Amino acid sequence: MAGSSETAEGDLECDISGGNVETFMETLQLAGQLPADDVLQTLKLLEVKILNNKLGITVYQKVTDVIVNYLRTMKPEGELEDMCTAVLLALGSHFPGMIVIKLWDKLPVQNVPPRSLLVAVGKLSLCQGTVAYIGVTWEYILRVLRMAQEENDMLALCHVLYGLVISAQKHLELGADDDEIMGITKEAASIKAYHTFRVFFNRWSLKNKDKVTEQVLVIIGHLFSLMPPSKLKNEVKRLTRWLMTLKSTKVTPFYISQCICQLVGALARSDCRGINVESQLENITGILFNQLSEEVNNSDPNSVKNHSLTLKAFHILTKLYSDQVVFLIRKTMESKDPAKAVSALQVFMSVFEEVPQTEKLQREVMHSTIIVIQDNLKPVSLPKLITLVCEPGNTLAFVPLSKTATEMALKARALGQFPYLSSFHLMPTQFISPQKLLTHLVMFSRKPYREKEFGTSSLRLLHALHPITSLHPVINSNVGQLWMKAIPQMLQILDDHTEKNLSQKKWDSTLLQFLNQSLVAIDDDNWLEHLVKVVLERIRYFSDDEAEKGFLYKFFGFTLRTSRSIKLVKIMISSILQTAHEKLQERKDLFKETLQSLQRLMEALIVEMPTRIQNCLEFLDTWLNSQKDNERERAMWCAARILGFTAKMKNFEREIEFPRLGRLVRLLALRCRDPVENICFLSSQAVYNLYCILLQQKKMERKHQGLWTEEEGKPGVYSANVFYNNTSEIAKAFAEYFTQIQLTTLVLTAMEGLTDSRAKVSLAAAQLMGAVMEERGREMIKIEEIVEGIMERLNMQLEPSTKEETLRAMCSLAGNNTHIVVPMLLNRPLPWDRTNLALWKLFGTRRETTINVLQLLIDILEKLRSREETTEMASQPVAVACALCEMLSGSLCQEAIQELYPRLLLAVLCHLYWVIEQNAPQKMVVFSKDGWQGNKGKPFDPTSCALEVVKLVLLAAAYEGVVVYADQHRCWDLLSCPKFYYMGIMELTSGLVKNCKPAVLHQILNLVRNLLSSVKDRQKILARAFYAQLLWHRSVAETVAQDFLSRVIKWLKDPNLIMKEVGLRGISNLALHPGQSESLKSLVPFLLSCLQNEVRVTVQAVKSLRNIICHRQGEDTKVVFGSISRHLRPLISDERDQVRISTMSALGHMLCQVNKFKPGPVLRREIYSFLVPLLLNFQDNNPEVVKACGGALTEWTKVIGWSSLTKTFQHTTLSDHIQVLKETCNYLASTCEKQLLGEFLSQSFDFLKRSQSFQRAAAVYFIGLIVKKINMSHIHEDDVWQLQSALRSVKNDPVESIQTLVHTTLKNIDHLVNARPVRTSRLSQLSTNFFKVSPIKTPKRKKRLFKIVKRERGDDNQKKKVWNWLRGIHSLNDQHKGSVNNTPLEIGSFHKKSTQSQSQKSESSSEETEPVQKPVSPRVTINI
Questions:
Q1: Alpha helices in 502-584 (DSSP H)
Q2: Does the structure show a pLDDT above 70 at 463?
Q3: Residue 306 to residues 206, 256, 329, 399, 914: CA-CA distances in angstroms?
Q4: What is the pLDDT of residues 278-315, one digit of tens each?
Q5: Environment class of 413 (CB within 10 Å of its CB; exposed 0-12, middle 13-18, buried 19+)
Q6: pTM for this model (two decimals)
Q7: For a disulfide at 1150, which of 260, 563, 1109, 1295, Cβ 3.0-4.6 Å?
């Protein structure tokens, strides 16, 4: 017990859990007297406080009341109003129902609630916790809704209604059956929805309130699904008319179209097809056509949604009223308004692609379209019409549309205009391109007799449109001459044949010949390039007929034959590699011949120019990365053949260069993990061939240098089988061959493969990258670019296995390039997402990386020692703490942590001190730890994060016992508060001393020793607190050549109380060890001077004296104790609880030690003086005081030898301390001499004047108990007078209970003094009083409680004699007045005024007299 490290826990007054909320509420209550900025700042802080703390519903209720009252009285606007809403939402996040009920709480119905409250309730209504309030809230809002007039109030009420409607709609759709949980039934919701609808139209004036109108449209759109279908059907007419009036307003069209779409959707779901709805179809479609005519702005989401919702409404209406809607569309298409006609065409193109219709109906609509175009050509231009002709969905209308287009083109030619607009091909996004037009018309001509006129219509339109590229004069001439001749010939062929006798093969040959001649006539590679893309697109996506595909492949071949551009030929070869595996004879021969030619060409290039081999391979890059299996397989086949051919070359004297080896290895290696097994096999062959080439080059070079050994050339180390599906081995094999640039290029290009949609490929990219970084990570360049690239991709949706491998690669990179990577990661904004956290956690799983990263992080934290103080908190140290928090949360870095443990711990503790000095706001969340099993994560501010790191450092270093000790001693609370930080350090050091090996303690000692004299108070306090408490361990305190005592003595002289206290802690710890007794004995006078100091200094001084006594050996222990006992006694009754507790506890330990050496009479007298202070303080209501007091009294009884009281004091609680006092007083009265009792009573008199009421009450109670147990009739009158005088001094005590107790005790004394067992005569009484006045002694001497010291008194003695005489006369007078003979005589009742006068004299002179002849003056002294 003597060696325990105790901390004054009662001094911790630092509240971190919401104590400032009361201050915030007081500020808001005075809001009218404060600037708006102050109120705004208060609200912001209050929001953060509420969001980050759980304060209990009572506190939340108070805050809610204050906020709502502020809103109602101050009516804030703007940012203040928004901030009030934010605070209410924060409160509602804990107890949403508490906010909702404030709508109708203490507010008359005729008043609209504050807007902030309405907005908050609206948003909270979308939360799960407010479902039970839907019904009652909606009922209240309906009443208030009728009274809203101002636009802002209307908007706020719309917030509430929106939340209510959405919540009711959601839960009713989920099928919630429990009405109590829902708070509203389906029927009630239906009725309220209808009433709300009616209020909007009957009570609200929406004129010139466009924003309110928009919100009303949103709400009623959701009300449609809740309203009774019969009611909804009856309201369609009125609703439609109202919607028609909105055209002239500034209401955003999106809200109108959304409302209509929701209306028709609700009608469709309830199958409402009545006459009311049908009668409004024309009006509804009219509104929709107007909506569709609005210009679409792609940058405006509402504009885009307006268009899509309008078309969706047409879809629904067409399902409900098919014939009527089609009629209305046809009617609109015939409108003279071009905008409406175009809108009708858009509806036609959209609706009839998705809604199944009969062929008859489609023909009717198409007929209407054609009539519109033929009757009035102005609404539709020729390019738009031709585009419409070539739409795949308009095949049925192709013949009439193409005839119309042909007629328009011929009319234009007759008027001398260009038959084909010169700007046509420059706008491919709006109209069909010439290449697509040519391909489309020729492909339609393949089936010439379809619909009887497909072929002739296509060819005639083509004939009317030539020349097909009018901007080019040569093309214009050549193509025009060709088509003027060839097309009429083909038309004649069709006229001469029928569908039955026309040979399709010959007709295809005719068309292909026409196309070939046209391409030769065009003779423009740019034009042909676009044509190739069109043909390929048609092959891939638009052609399901194999005969048609065969025709297209032949067309494609003619294009290849015609072109002279290398770029275009490359595109052609690309298309061959990209084709699928269909068994088409037309493509097969071409494909085989092309691949063989390509292989022979590349082999010839390698032989002729071996330095260009990589260029040949990179040509395949596009197809090696293709998403199509057949393309990748063919490309890899080519690569394997090329590298195999190169590897077999015998002459390597001519250098074969691979300047971009990294890119090439990445290209081939990724295919070793391809989903297609054959590609993996081909890739492993290609990689092995490349490895053999590099090995041969290495062999040639080392032979020239004379360094080649046969061991290096032994086969079998690597093979194609080793590389098969093994990207990591590929990286290891090629690592030595890369230059720095190639190495970096490989990583950068491999990085691109991380996002590949194929899981195996993305995983291979990550493995390749990681293996290279592991082998040669230190030699890479462009580290910053690599880090940014990896982090960017980690934030994407990578495959789990790929992400894991990428994180490992990043870990290797950080381990090899710590000083570049780690600062980049630390600079990322806080709080970090899961990806960043996962990366830091991985850094703690590999020993080498962990050590490198930790050393850098420690360096950053240690720079705090030299950092200049700033007003803003630096972000990097905080980020370091976050990084450590994640790194150390794993269990794999224990060995690395133990290696750096002492230095890391000190750095983190220093950072913690820096953070708490910055007073970082709690809203500054910098770290969030994931919750267990999907629970919400715990947020950390800078302080809590740094504190968490301290714990994790200890746990990671396998010192769980230190953490347990710290938990038990409130170490974390102390460390979190700047005022008590040093105490937290000492408690933490105590845990270290108890759990760490001496070697670790000495390491810490050596580290902190360098900071003992730091110019920064932060480092100095940290170091000295550590240093002082490390002395608790014997091996530290007995370190050779260390003058600990002189150091801590210097700290005692420091004016800083913290330094003084720390120095005293060091003294206290040094006293625990032998060998320090004599040197510490000389410090006792100085320690005694520290007892009248600040609380913590006094407490620590007491503990130092305790340890000096308790660990001192020899008889002089009693001497030392005797010298300090009189200084300790006042501290037992000190007003400061911590001082009293420490003093009592220390006294118990000291008495235990002193008892070992059998104290003598003088020392026992000193020990007796502790009884009354201990007994009276034993009545305190503080359980810690009672406990300490009981321990001290227990040891006191052992020293004095009162064993019968030992058990009484050993097991005491607050509930029985009165009984203990009674038992003690009984024992004192029965065993002690009267003068010892008198001394105890004299000591108790001092407590009657104490400021603490419990001490005054205990003193009165103690006097009363003693008086009851002694025979007061045998006590000297002066002693009785002294008792009464002392008690009367507190007769007017401010505490009423003490007044009562004093009155009772005085009454008891009077009764006990005057009580006589035998009646005496009046003569004897008169004789007694006479002897009191006269100098003659009474025949019988009474006992004295208080010992008297005699001295001359003069006139005062004479006055006392007169007073005694008068008192005797007064007694006779009282007896004379008595009427009952059997009543015993009462003596000692003093006159009030005289008693008070006597008491005042006693207090002023502190003197008493003894009834002797010579005048003397009494003085109370100790007589033991």
A1: 504-522, 525-537, 546-562, 566-578
A2: yes
A3: 22, 8, 19, 34, 56
A4: 788 888 888 888 887 777 777 788 888 888 888 888 88
A5: middle
A6: 0.52
A7: 1109
